[in-house]
Amino acid sequence: MESLLDKFTSSTYKVLKQIYDCQMKLPDGTSYIPISQAELSRIIGISTITMNKYFRQFQEDGIITSYGETKGKYQLTDTGIAIIEKMEELEEELKEVE
Fold this sequence. Notes:
There is one protein chain. This protein is mostly helical. Helices cover about 60% and strands about 10% of the residues. The chain has five helices and four strands. Strand 3 and strand 4 form a beta hairpin.
């Protein structure tokens, strides 16, 4: 069942949330997104062109950044993580009042 927050959030947030959920934590404590834009687009059900637009916008907004020297690999910035964490807090609060 779709949560109340899901009903009122944009597809931009939903893409960012999926990126957040796909992160892989490394032994040194860093995290990165191990799957490609094409794989993410299949998971979410959008075109690769649309996914590329999201990634470009997220980079311009400082929400994701390239991961090291690996082409096509990204990581969420502190800003991107903070957005997700705040939205998850809001979702928990909404569950309490539903």
